[in-house]
Design a protein that fits this description.
Helix content is 23%, strand content 29%. It is built from 3 helices and 7 strands; from the N terminus they run E-H-E-H-E-E-H-E-E-E. The protein has a 7-stranded mixed β-sheet with strand order 1-7-6-2-5-4-3. It is globular.
Length: 140
């Protein structure tokens, strides 16, 4: 499914819709160029899950955890990782598939072998122009 978001608010709203539907244990991967809107989309997921604090990029911390109404949101940024081995060594994969939360992974392609065996909702975000993004939702 492809959706064109002409404003940041639309990107957030699409993420929020997905956030409201989550049950726990989901892995969501976000792919796209720097600045494409991955963290903006994650903010929407957080709103949909009832997270009450600001969501920020975990680029330097690798993972930020937020408490929602019923589930935790675990927001990962794998940009600085170069292999699945690094994700295992950092203990990040221990959160994958846990029913008490949802994992959203930016730059998951950097650790793709670590996702084997999990059901993953894959989301690609592309620039169409300065304000417009195309969000492509693929399920594996």
């Amino acid at each position: 499914m492809k959706t064109v978001c002409k404003h940041e608010k639309e990107t957030v709203a699409l993420g929020e819709k997905i956030g409201r539907s989550l049950k726990g244990g989901e892995l969501i991967t976000l792919s796209g160029d720097l600045g494409a809107g991955k963290t903006t989309f994650t903010k929407g997921i957080a709103y949909g899950m009832g997270v009450a604090v600001p969501v920020v990029s975990p680029t330097f911390t690798l993972m930020n955890e937020y408490e929602g109404n019923k589930l935790f949101l675990r927001h990962f940024d794998m940009y600085r990782l170069h292999s699945a081995e690094e994700a295992y060594e950092a203990g990040l994969t221990e959160y994958f598939g846990k029913n008490d939360g949802v994992c959203v992974l930016e730059w998951a392609e950097n650790i793709s072998p670590a996702l084997d065996g999990y059901r993953v909702l894959r989301i690609n975000i592309y620039y169409e122009n300065e304000n417009t993004r195309v969000v492509e939702i693929l399920e594996q």
